[in-house]
Write a structure and sequence with these properties.
It is built from 4 helices and 6 strands, in the order βααβββββαα. It folds into 2 domains: 85 residues, no CATH class; 51 residues. The chain starts with 6 loop residues before the first strand and ends in a 9-residue tail after the last helix.
C-alpha cells in the first residue's frame, strides 16, 4: 500500500486555549457565587467549595502554562513519519493522534516519540484548520489517516513457524 504524499502544515498551540481557560474559570466563579447567594450555604460549605475552585484554577494555570508554551511550527509528514518543525529547534519525530474531526478542522494530540527529548514525555494539543493552509488540507487529511509503513508489514501475511 502506498503512503500519503509529503505535506507540511502550519501548527502551534491551541489559540483559544488560554482565553477559554480563563472564561471557563470566570463562569464557574459566577455560577458558584450565584449558587451561594441562592442557597444561603453555610460558611464551612462555601469555604470548602471555593477552596476546590481555587485549587482547580491554580492547577489549570500551572498545567496550562506548560501547554501554551509550545512554539509555533509545522507538522511535517515526509511519507514515513511525522516531524515537528519549530523555529530554531531541530526537527523532532512525533506521533499524531486525531481527537476530533470536524471536516474543516482537526483537533489533534501531538506526542514526541520516546527518547526524542531525553526521555521526557512531551505532548501538546492543537486545532488544525483548513483556513490555515487550504491548499495543503487534503494532503494533511490523507497523511493523518494513512497507515504507517510499520503497520503494513505483516498486516496481511502470516509467518510460518
Amino acid at each position: 500500500m502506498r503512503s500519503a504524499p509529503p505535506v507540511v502544515f502550519p501548527a502551534g498551540r491551541f489559540r483559544w486555549g488560554p482565553g477559554g481557560a480563563v472564561l471557563a474559570g470566570a463562569l464557574c466563579a459566577i455560577a458558584l457565587g450565584l449558587w451561594q447567594s441562592a442557597v444561603q450555604a453555610p460558611l464551612q460549605t462555601s469555604l470548602l467549595i471555593w477552596s476546590v475552585w481555587v485549587g482547580a484554577a491554580v492547577l489549570s494555570a500551572l498545567l496550562g502554562r506548560r501547554e501554551f508554551a509550545v512554539p509555533k511550527g509545522a507538522l511535517n509528514w515526509d511519507g514515513a513519519e511525522w516531524l515537528w518543525q519549530a523555529e530554531a529547534l531541530p526537527d523532532r519525530p512525533v506521533r499524531l493522534s486525531v481527537l476530533l474531526d470536524g471536516g474543516a478542522f482537526l483537533l489533534v494530540s501531538v506526542r514526541e516519540e520516546a527518547g526524542a527529548q531525553g526521555g521526557v514525555d512531551t505532548r501538546f494539543y492543537g486545532c488544525l484548520s483548513r483556513s490555515h493552509a487550504p491548499e495543503q488540507w487534503h494532503g494533511l487529511r490523507c497523511a493523518v489517516y494513512c497507515r504507517m509503513p510499520s503497520e503494513e508489514v505483516g498486516a496481511g501475511h502470516r509467518q510460518s513457524p
